[in-house]
Amino acid sequence: MSQIKCRRALRLLAGAVVVVTLGGCGASAEPGDEVAAVSDRTVSVGLLLPTSGVNKAVGDDMRRGFALYLRRHGGILGGHRVQVETADEGETADSGRAGLAELVGKGVAAVAGVASPDVLSALRDPIRAAKIPLIGVNGSPASLQGEIFVWRTSYVGTDPGLAMGRYMAENVSGRVVMVLPDQRGGQDVLDGFRDGFGTDARLDREPMFAGAAANPGKGAYAGLVRQIRQRRPAAVFAALTGPAAAEFVREYRSAGVTAGLYGTGFLTEGTGVAEAGAPAVGITTALNYSADLPYPANRVFASAYRKEHGAAPTTYAMAAYDAAAVLDRAVQLAKGDLSAQTINLHLGRVGQVDSPRGLWQFNQSRTPQQKWYLREVRADGQVTSNVVIRELATLG
């Protein structure tokens, strides 16, 4: 297959409920890419991603990360050609379950993706019934730890708050207040931040909630910003994401609040930092990835991603890339048994992963044991980006 046709095939992953056979893409591999020997069998993998709605940008990043791994490895996982089935996760528990049911009906041996923690929670019982491994590539609810068929190449929802809570307890003087989304994922972040900060009286134990609107309009946070000013904090910890994060940052800065602004990494990740623009400069966040990490694996990944998409990769793209990597290894270890339960068994035997984020491996609860990084938004001309300041901790 020509390089142009192969790239076109990879782009088809963006469509809702489409099938892409990537085995013929080996000819498009570039110098330095890895192409394994190919068997005459095919392994079927499902991608459950938001292809529309407020999380579409996250879903696009996930799709691009997964497709990049396949391209770099000739469309091969564990020595077998890959058939990728894509379904729309939607924005609700019902739409997520419907998407998963469609993939299960197509006979996939594993599923990767899911942007919404609320949707992921709703998939617990269907995944148990199907006995198919699900690899989450965004924040995973703490309640799903230890589920036999639920893995994640991202992190548990408490980890971002835990990492930043520890840092702020040690480095911020004065009162700290918390701003959280009124969603399931917000509770995990809150629990992690309280645990990390400890019992120090500087922390205002009562959080402020920003509501559940994923795409709020202009002025949506005027009341919230007034509440923040009334509490007179030295610093604010915020855990919003996407358009909500961008709108909050703009209103926070335009109101002239002088308290330092800190947050989980997704406060400024991806489109968040671009949409917020200059007001995002100076925000400090904690995340398990940054596009400027100096590891050799990241130089290769980030360079290839920028070349294809004209933008820096996000944690969502990286985690999807790693989901493909662990499936590659698990399928290889399965030695020709391409059943879902055998692949699930061998996911636990993958061992250390040489990832763009740095080396990591699954812990007993099927979560990466990985480094977390302190980042700051800085401006380079008209462009703003997250820059790594230092390592924070190893969690997992």
From TrEMBL:
Keywords: Signal
Keyword Signal: yes
Transmembrane keyword on record: no
PANTHER family, per the entry: LEUCINE-SPECIFIC-BINDING PROTEIN (PTHR30483), PERIPLASMIC BINDING PROTEIN OF ABC TRANSPORTER FOR NATURAL AMINO ACIDS (PTHR30483:SF6)
SUPFAM superfamilies: Periplasmic binding protein-like I (SSF53822)
Domain of life: Bacteria
Family: Belongs to the leucine-binding protein family.
Classification via InterPro entries: BCAA_transport, Leu-bd, Peripla_BP_I
Sequence ranges assigned to domain Leucine-binding protein in this UniProt record: 42-382
Endpoints of the signal sequence: 1-29
TM stretches of this protein: none
Organism listed in the record: Pilimelia terevasa
Name of the protein this chain belongs to: Leucine-binding protein domain-containing protein
